[in-house]
Design goal:
With about 290 residues, this protein is mainly β. It has one domain: Beta-galactosidase, Chain A, domain 5 (Distorted Sandwich). Helices cover about 0% and strands about 45% of the residues. It contains 1 helix and 22 strands. A 9-stranded antiparallel beta sheet has the order 7-8-9-10-22-18-17-14-15, with no helix packed on it. Strands 12, 13, 16, 19 and 20 form a 5-stranded antiparallel beta sheet that branches. A 4-stranded antiparallel beta sheet has the order 1-2-3-4, with no helix packed on it. The radius of gyration is 19 Å and the shape is globular.
Length: about 290
């Protein structure tokens, strides 16, 4: 495990998948990240790359050839190199190789930077097209925060408070993990979303193009909570495994295939194109209090 820390926070990162595995508030002596109990969901904060969500038939078409990719891609199962180390930041690197080329015929360099600033963790995705051809990809985060955060509070005591009032529906997910054609009303001129385990009975809440660039996880029964910033991410997922004591706040540049997808990678909703030597960067962050 790799550790970064400052006076207020300590973050632990597993080089496998460059996955955040701990986020500890030193001042409050409080762990904020889900513990990864495999009885419910064995992950804690997997990185989603080079796709987000599920492909129709778990496959895509590119230049007339069919390729197979599992849900959320392969980065979460690959070992990252630690390229740079500092006390309060670390940079992880994954490069394309013969194995990735079999399922994803592109040359890339994918860096993930973890950095601490006061009571904030900043996670940056830095992606470069290292090949001659066009490069198509999606990327996203999947951090799981434990809930309830503190003793003497319950799961249902917490709520999400968005930066702005939203008038947004959730996009339902089919039994095959694909995005349905029509949204279902959830947020109606409000910035408050009460949290309950029943909320995730039909999988994640998937939102597109919200007005807000941050959301707060709060409870009126404790001052402990967090603010999650996701500027520049067009999609947001909110999810928890059935019966589990956590909530995922997932910033996405990319989304699962739609139920009527033609499976052509270049036509995929949310897909990002980089030309030769072009680079892409997005960051999300979480403030703990």
């Amino acid at each position: 495990m790799e550790v970064i820390e400052n006076k207020l926070l300590r973050a632990t990162i597993n080089p496998k998948g460059a996955e955040l595995s701990g986020l500890f508030n030193k001042k409050e002596e409080l762990e904020y990240l889900w513990n990864g109990d495999p009885a419910f969901w064995g992950k804690q904060s997997p990185v989603l790359f080079p796709i987000v969500g599920t492909l129709k038939g778990n496959s895509y078409l590119y230049k007339g050839k069919s390729y197979q990719l599992p849900r959320h891609g392969f980065a979460r199962d690959r070992s990252f190199e630690v390229e740079k180390r500092a006390g309060d930041s670390k940079l992880f690197l994954l490069k394309s190789d013969m194995e990735t080329q079999k399922v994803y015929p592109f040359d890339f360099e994918f860096r993930i930077r973890y950095a601490l600033e006061e009571n904030k963790l900043i996670v940056s995705y830095e992606i470069k097209n290292s090949g001659e051809d066009d490069f198509y990809f999606s990327v996203g985060g999947h951090p799981a925060f434990k809930l309830p955060l503190v003793d003497n509070t319950a799961y249902e005591d917490y709520y999400l408070e968005f930066e702005q009032n939203e008038n947004a529906g959730r996009w339902p997910i089919s039994g095959d993990g694909l995005i349905e054609k029509e949204p279902i009303s959830v947020l109606n001129e409000t910035n408050i979303l009460p949290i309950s385990k029943q909320l995730f009975a039909k999988d994640a809440l998937v939102f597109k193009y919200l007005n807000s660039s941050f959301v707060k996880l709060k409870s009126d029964k404790t001052p402990r909570g967090l603010t999650f910033h996701f500027p520049g991410f067009p999609f947001l997922g909110i999810w928890a495994a059935k019966g589990a004591d956590f909530i995922c706040i997932e910033p996405w540049c990319g989304i699962a295939d739609t139920v009527d997808s033609d499976q052509q990678l270049v036509n995929k909703e949310g897909i990002i194109l980089l030309k030769n030597a072009e680079e892409f960067k997005r960051s999300w962050s979480v403030e703990l209090y």
